[in-house]
């Protein structure tokens, strides 16, 4: 089944819902939104799923490069200014927009979860997919919340009531609970543009790594690595093809297809526009040194796919014009990558540690370099430095650098933090605190 994600899908889904199997019931009911969720047909559920995918595209896109800005991967582009990439305040419009987007998406995702939980036909594959997708997306939303804000209100269903912020540990537990439910419902991988058991395993691996549950982080990552559906790229072109429209790259575990007719989500506008202005350029240090040869690794295949000859552009998301490393037939439909197999190799290696993870790291690096000559053993610090360097190279412009340094407590690698360690948590938006009450929404320390 082909799905074309469009911003108007949710509206179409609701309209079609009114016109399909429940139309007679709707004609007899006031208000119309009181239709029992267990009366939705499989066709209705498919359309509602499409609407939620479109909503999640907007959420993931909103956060996509945030970790690169705060992770000092970017400098201001020709159409932007950026004095302090890490600075945040409770009054920040960007922080408010990110917080609100999480809960806007959560409302729609919770509708899926509630629909599954209310269903009397839980053996149906479509109903299972609805529930599994809902639980996975809810876990993903809360992963974005907990890694940035720590504590957050835990909403198991839609409500207009004020729900107080729960402690960070409770949010992590809620994520693990939802992933456990998703794991029991989702099908095996069939299509990189649909939620599957493999992307659930990938998020489980990230969560376990964040919580220092290294045993399970390695297990979940290995579940993905050993699937024949996925493989590491071995050339620059193969690596670049993970970030173009209609990608069939075996790097991809899951990506949001980003096929829209309105409300376009354009990666290249931020880093590589065809117009003379865009927001971000590679930082001078990244451009000069990120993919440079070292004594142990040479000729990184990723370099050609990320930076071009113009040191003001990041070409990882090709804009469709001439001079790009690979052709992107429809740059307005660049997929929003959520999980790649490369990260699973790096998670497994990190989780296994310097003694047991070196072979996994070598296996990964042999696919990324023309030559690699890692030593036969490393100290824990040396190994962590290699992992962080590889994650920096591999996941540049994919929003991960800031949290990688936060979760590993390598704040020494930030150059603009200047002792402001409180910036490792985002501020709770002041306007939200005003609405919910300071006792329900306490502010994170330092703001």
TrEMBL record:
Transmembrane segments: none
Compartments in which it is found: Cell outer membrane
Keyword flag Membrane: yes
Chain ranges of the SusD-like N-terminal domain: 26-192
UniProt KW keywords: Cell outer membrane, Membrane, Signal
InterPro entries documented for this protein: SusD-like_N, SusD_RagB_dom, TPR-like_helical_dom_sf
Domain RagB/SusD: 315-411
Gene3D superfamilies named in the record: 1.25.40.390
Domain of life of the organism encoding this protein: Bacteria
GO CC field: cell outer membrane
Entry similarity comment: Belongs to the SusD family.
Protein name as annotated: RagB/SusD family nutrient uptake outer membrane protein
């Amino acid at each position: 089944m082909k799905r074309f994600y469009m911003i108007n899908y949710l509206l179409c889904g609701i309209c079609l819902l009114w016109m399909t199997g429940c139309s007679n019931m709707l004609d007899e009911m006031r208000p119309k939104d009181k239709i029992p969720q267990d009366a939705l047909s499989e066709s209705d559920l498919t359309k509602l799923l499409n609407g939620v995918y479109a909503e999640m595209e907007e959420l993931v896109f909103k956060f996509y490069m945030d970790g690169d800005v705060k992770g000092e991967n970017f400098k201001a582009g020709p159409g932007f200014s950026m004095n302090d990439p890490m600075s945040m305040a409770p009054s920040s419009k960007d922080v408010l927009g990110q917080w609100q987007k999480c809960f806007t998406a959560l409302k729609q995702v919770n509708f899926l979860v509630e629909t599954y939980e209310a269903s009397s036909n839980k053996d149906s594959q479509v109903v299972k997919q609805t529930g599994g997708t809902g639980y996975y997306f809810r876990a993903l939303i809360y992963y974005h919340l907990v890694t940035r804000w720590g504590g957050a209100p835990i909403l198991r269903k839609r409500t207009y009531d004020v729900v107080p912020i729960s402690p960070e540990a409770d949010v992590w537990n809620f994520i693990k609970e939802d992933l456990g439910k998703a794991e029991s419902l989702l099908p095996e991988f069939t299509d990189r543009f649909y939620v599957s058991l493999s992307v659930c395993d990938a998020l489980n691996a990230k969560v376990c790594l964040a919580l220092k549950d290294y045993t399970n982080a390695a297990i979940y990552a290995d579940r993905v690595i050993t699937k024949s559906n996925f493989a590491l790229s071995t050339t620059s072109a193969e690596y670049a093809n993970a970030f173009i429209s209609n990608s069939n790259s075996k790097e991809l575990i899951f990506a949001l297809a980003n096929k829209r007719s309105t409300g376009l989500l354009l990666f290249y506008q931020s880093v590589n526009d065809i117009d003379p202005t865009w927001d971000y350029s590679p930082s001078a240090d990244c451009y000069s040194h990120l993919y440079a040869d070292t004594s142990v690794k040479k000729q990184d295949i990723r370099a050609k796919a990320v930076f071009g000859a113009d040191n003001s552009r990041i070409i990882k998301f090709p804009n469709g014009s001439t001079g790009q490393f690979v052709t992107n037939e429809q740059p307005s439909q660049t997929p929003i990558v959520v999980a790649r197999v490369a990260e699973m190799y790096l998670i497994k290696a990190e989780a296994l540690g310097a003694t047991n993870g070196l072979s996994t790291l070598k296996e990964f690096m042999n696919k990324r370099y023309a030559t690699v000559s890692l030593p036969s053993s490393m100290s824990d610090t040396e190994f962590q430095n290699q992992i962080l360097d590889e994650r920096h190279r591999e996941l540049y412009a994919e929003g991960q650098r800031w949290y990688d340094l936060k979760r590993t407590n390598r704040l020494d690698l930030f150059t603009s933090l200047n002792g402001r360690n409180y910036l490792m948590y985002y501020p709770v938006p002041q306007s939200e605190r005003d609405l919910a009450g300071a006792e329900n929404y306490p502010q994170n320390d330092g703001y």
